[in-house]
Amino acid sequence: MKVLSLELVGYREWTESLGHDREWRIQSLQHRLAHVLYETFSEVNAFPVPLRYDTYAVLADGIREASLFEALKKVRPFSPTEIRVCKGYARRPVDALFSCVDRLDDFPDERVVVAHYDIDGVTKLHGREALEEITTLRMTLERRAREIGAIPHYFGGDNFGVFATLRDLDELVELVEELRNVKAGIGVGRNPREALTKAAEALDYLRRSRVSRWKVLD
Fold this sequence. Notes:
The chain is α+β, with helices and mostly antiparallel strands. It has 2 domains: 105 residues, Alpha-Beta Plaits, CATH 3.30.70; 106 residues, Alpha-Beta Plaits (2-Layer Sandwich). The protein is built from 7 helices and 9 strands; from the N terminus they run E-H-H-E-E-H-E-H-E-H-E-E-H-E-H-E. A 5-stranded mixed β-sheet has the order 6-7-5-8-9. A 4-stranded antiparallel β-sheet has the order 2-3-1-4. A hairpin with a 2-residue loop joins strand 6 and strand 7. The longest helix has 22 residues. It is globular, with a radius of gyration of 18 Å. The relative contact order is 0.15.
């Protein structure tokens, strides 16, 4: 799998330079930068995942390296610090974060797999109960993602994603069957944006049909 790892160099020093009344400014900038990353990389069919907000994993299979760096060029002016780049390639997505190579184009593209999980009937739960269900699911998905070397992502609300490989497809389905109140739309695509689109389409089908708790669209 191919991942463009972005690290904001000197981020801690930058935050400390803002004085003590700084947290609202830090949060504001983090979300502004994330907005630019999503907007810009979507234009080339990539997808950025914030790991620590000073580090991002841009899922990059199916995309030419030149297109990725053209997008990055547009992002750089919005960063408060320099951005260090690792062009990563490895069998598992999480390993690609730390396996830098000279040229991504020298390595084969793989099909991107993303499982989009959400909780059944969460809107019917009371506030505290809903929060507990969401927190429990998040912890479970993050643990299982670590076990298979996938990259988890919180989409918001009761929605979560796990970015993985075709080799992990059975694990992603098994997880749905283990959890009592969760469904998953699983998308397989030539690039991250296509995989996410198919995952959302599969999830919409599950919500309408209610005939199953998981569906794969390839």
